[in-house]
Amino acid sequence: MKILSAMSLCSSILLAACQPAITHTTQKDDDKVADWKAFLKEELPLLGHRNWIVVTDMAYPLQTNPGIKTIFAAEPYEEVVETVNSMIEEAPHVFAHIYQDQEQQALSEELAPGWDEYKARMSQALDLSNVRWMPHEELIARLDEVSRLCQVVIIKTSLTIPYTSTFFELDCGYWDGERERKIRE
User: Fold this and answer.
1) Which residues contact 68 (CB under 8 A, 6 or more apart)?
2) Which CATH architecture has domain 26-184?
3) For 48-93, what is each residue's pLDDT tens digit?
4) Please, what's the b/e burial string for 19-37 (b: 16 or more CB within 10 A of its CB; e: otherwise)?
5) Alpha carbon separation from 34 to 9, 58, 107, 108, 118 (Å, rounded)
6) Containing H/E element for 141?
7) H/E element holding 166?
8) Which pLDDT belongs to residue 33?
9) What's the Rg (C-alpha) of the chain?
């Protein structure tokens, strides 16, 4: 009986030793990103079509999918959006389809204090005529799906107004749908 207990104990110890350690690290823990602009400048040449960059408000959740890197920017939200947009526009290999939460169209100063100022600043930071509006949950579902295969970079800000995330879906900057159709024919 003692031999059987000793063997059982040894088996349990060996089994535990063979299991991978379960750890939780965030992108911040891994890379100690202090300067989000430098991080994005370094990361952008590696990103291409199907990758996303998202600028979010403070309550946006820290997602744990390995395909998502989350960093924090201390600058004002609109400044971060404008900088990200400019960096993408200057990149020779990509352009962005820009999305915002459709719920924004129902917000007001009464519902979300600071909304009027946010809206005015956003109209200066981004050409809103280029923005496509989609329900927040659909955008989150797309990110979840995309991040299984492709990288998503989330830049969180200290903005505390709901439904204010700006989603940049990257696409190839030197190829288009018309030429793609021609080679497929």
Assistant:
1) 143, 147, 151, 152, 153, 154
2) 3-Layer(aba) Sandwich (3.40)
3) 999 999 999 999 999 888 999 999 999 999 999 999 999 999 999 9
4) eeeeeeeebeeeeebeebe
5) 47, 17, 33, 34, 26
6) helix 136-146
7) strand 166-172
8) 55
9) 22
